[in-house]
Design a protein that fits this description.
The complex is a heterodimer. Chain A is mostly beta strands. Helix content of chain A is about 10%, strand content about 65%. Chain A has two helices and twelve strands. Chain A is elongated. By secondary structure, chain B is α/β, with parallel strands linked by helices. Chain B has eleven helices and 13 strands. In chain B, the strands form two sheets. A seven-stranded mixed β-sheet of chain B has the order 3-4-5-6-9-10-13, sandwiched between helices. In chain B, strands 1, 2, 7, 8, 11 and 12 form a six-stranded antiparallel β-sheet that branches. In chain B, strand 3 and strand 4 form a beta hairpin. In chain B, helix 8 packs parallel to helix 9. The radius of gyration of chain B is 25 Å and the shape is elongated. The mean pLDDT of chain B is about 95. Classes of the chains: A mainly beta, B alpha/beta. At the A-B interface, helix 2, strand 9, strand 10 and strand 11 of A face helix 1, helix 2, helix 8, strand 8 and strand 11 of B.
Chain lengths: ~290, ~350
């Protein structure tokens, strides 16, 4: 004896198609801007980690859910040209997912997050071995949460696009001639747009009847706060670079009298590859080239 | 510079923690009671419509917790369940690992008006009926009247199931669509079935939702529109010949909504008892101890903005008589047959 929102109808499919097209356009733009210029070293790193996640979604439950999260991070960075060693382009991608439970272990919420981004940084070199990068990152964030016991409000999706302030400090440490690149990075959103359902709106109204209501909000520091911290150590071995990371992501936002919050603490391990296609594939190293790590 | 950076890193890592805290004792009775009362106070949609003083009800049941050390968890569950029963709402449930608190008087206080023994006798559906998805159907014996029984709006079906069921009864003079004892399910199924009985889009009702914690904080009504299946194709939509929808008090929730839709259609007549209601689209929440609470969240209305929480009246009110039941006769089906025979389309 219950209702349940159900099947994808034409309105929902239309919304989905718009999102897909938007996503495709944004990624196309990102790939165009991320073309590596010649004679520059690009640093690319993948890391995979495991940690804890806490989720609070007032649309789904008044309780905090906690659990284990698996996370993958990708990052690529290079200078924008072979003659410029102050301005760099960065691409990032974060994917994480996990199962969370309430304290009483009577219900679970499946959590999945995806956040691609692209940004630019200006490089300061205040002292030897220390580099400070300051810039901005534009990202898309899509967080999906599914509550297994809920009927007509089983699903919550956080969708937003934000301009973030980004700060990176990296220090080259030599421990008995063994180089370790220590890096701290902090990213925090300044302004953007986010999707938050109305206080008591059902997904039947939003996606079957196609009435989103007051679901799209301008987001800034007054209603959205996030700190994406990471501390990494790149161990520069003879033939490879191992990246060890501790990632601490915290995010909260509110709108329509609903509060949302999440936190991840993840330890991850991965590798970094520095490479360049000199002179557009001629494989002939020039006398000098622009190294992102210098 | 190094000290500044270390300070920044330390502060940024340490300053971020969840601002929402769980209660120290998730099984504390008073904590859970207050959580339940507050969830309902902020989310339940029928306080004003039903003239319920939730503050007063809260005080009455709060007083029963003055000596929590004398209660066990079953007794505490009963107190919470009894408080929720004051709402007189079949969509309100409290579910624990050991019991589900419910309100069933919306149908237990009324005649059954349904007998599966009679329905599956040779007089009506018999044993050799067809099954397509959740539909059981056949031509009624010694008649030119099609009969479809759909007993659960959670029972899935495809468009093909529905097309075949309606198509195989296409030569009949009239159709009986029996949704008695159907306690609800998916709203979209209600619309999918109703879409076969019209060739024109129409608004059949409205829905609102809470926009804040106040008892009367509601959105503007949102129109619910029925879009016909295969518009313009009368062959697959039953629009020219009469249809009778059979109802009783156990028609609840999505079934109530289905009857609300069908009542708008010109060739459809509702026969039987008033539906049980359940016009509030329910949502879920939970207490700190993990008990799940379901409540009516979004009130729904008919096309005249009349609330359908307490059910929909039939066009022709009929109860199954005890004399007929003793003879193996379903009075409601017989009334429908008589109606359809009197309204044959030439």
């Amino acid at each position: 004896m219950y209702f349940c929102f159900s099947n994808l109808n034409s309105n929902y499919m239309r919304t989905l198609r718009i999102k897909a097209v938007l996503f495709f356009v944004l990624f196309s733009l990102a790939s165009i801007f991320s073309q590596e210029p010649k004679n520059t070293i690009t640093s690319r790193g993948w890391s995979f980690g495991l940690g804890g996640v806490s989720v609070y979604d007032e649309y789904l439950s008044p309780l905090v859910y906690t659990g284990t999260v698996f996370r993958a991070d990708y990052e690529s960075m290079h200078f924008i040209s072979d003659s410029n060693n102050k301005l760099s382009l960065q691409q990032t991608l974060m994917v994480s997912g996990g199962m969370t439970d309430n304290v009483a272990k009577t219900n679970s919420i499946f959590y999945l997050a995806l956040r691609p981004g692209i940004g630019m940084h200006y490089h300061f070199r205040p002292m030897a071995n220390l580099k400070i990068l300051v810039g901005g990152i534009w990202d898309l964030a899509f967080v999906s949460k599914y509550s297994f016991n809920n009927g007509n409000n089983p699903y919550s999706a956080d969708f937003s696009t934000q301009i973030n302030a980004s700060f990176i400090a990296q220090y080259l440490l030599n421990v008995k001639k063994f180089p370790i690149m220590i890096r701290y990075s902090l990213r925090s959103p300044l302004a953007g747009v986010m999707f938050v359902p109305e206080y008591g709106a059902s997904y039947y109204e939003m996606f079957t009847l196609g009435k989103l209501g007051n679901a799209i909000h301008f987001s800034s520091l007054h209603n959205s706060l996030a700190w994406n911290n990471s501390l990494t150590a790149d161990l520069m071995l003879k033939k490879m670079i191992i990246r060890l990371s501790y990632i601490h992501d915290y995010e909260k936002h509110h709108a329509n009298s609903l509060h949302f919050e999440s936190m991840q603490n993840v330890f991850s391990i991965g590798s970094v590859i520095n490479f360049s296609i000199f002179d557009r594939g001629k494989r002939k190293a020039p006398a000098s080239y622009n190294d992102i790590n210098k | 510079m190094r000290q500044f950076l270390l300070f920044l890193i330390a502060v940024s890592f340490a300053s971020c923690k969840m601002s929402v805290e769980e209660p120290s004792n998730i099984n504390d009775y008073k904590t859970n009671f207050e959580s339940l009362w507050k969830i309902m106070d902020e989310h339940y949609c029928y306080f004003t419509y039903k003239k319920i003083n939730w503050d007063s009800i809260g005080n009455v049941y709060r007083a029963k917790l003055q000596r929590p050390d004398t209660l066990n968890y079953v007794q505490f569950f009963r107190i919470c369940g009894n408080m929720l029963s004051e709402l007189k709402d079949g969509h309100v449930n409290l579910a624990s690992s050991f019991d589900v608190a419910r309100y069933w008087k919306w149908y237990t206080d009324y005649p059954d008006n349904f007998s599966s023994t009679i329905l599956y006798s040779d007089r009506y559906l018999g044993k050799n009926y067809y099954i397509a998805g959740g539909f059981q159907y056949n031509v009624l014996p010694k008649s030119a009247i099609g009969y479809i029984y759909y007993g659960d709006f959670s029972s899935s079906f495809s468009g093909a199931n529905l097309s075949y069921a309606i198509g195989m009864l296409g030569n009949c003079q009239g159709l009986i669509l029996d949704v008695r004892n159907n306690g609800g399910g998916l709203l979209t199924y209600a619309e999918d079935i109703a879409a076969r009985f019209t060739t024109q889009s129409l608004t059949y009702g409205y829905i609102r939702h809470k926009t804040g914690t106040g008892h009367d904080d509601f959105s503007d009504p949102i129109a619910q529109t029925l879009t016909p299946y295969a518009t313009g194709s009368i062959a697959t939509n039953w629009v020219e010949k009469p249809v009778v929808v059979l109802t009783n008090r156990t028609c609840y929730s999505a079934t109530n909504d289905f009857v609300c839709i069908m009542k708008q259609l010109p060739n459809v007549v509702i026969i039987g008892d008033q539906t049980g209601g359940g016009g509030g689209l329910p949502m879920n929440s939970e207490l700190p101890n993990g008990w799940m609470i379901r409540y009516s969240a979004c009130p729904m209305y008919d096309v005249n903005m009349q609330d359908i929480e307490f059910g929909i009246s039939p066009d022709i009110k009929v109860d199954m008589s005890t004399t007929d039941i003793a003879k193996g006769v379903d009075t409601i089906i017989e009334t429908a047959i008589t109606y359809l025979n009197q309204h044959k389309v030439n």
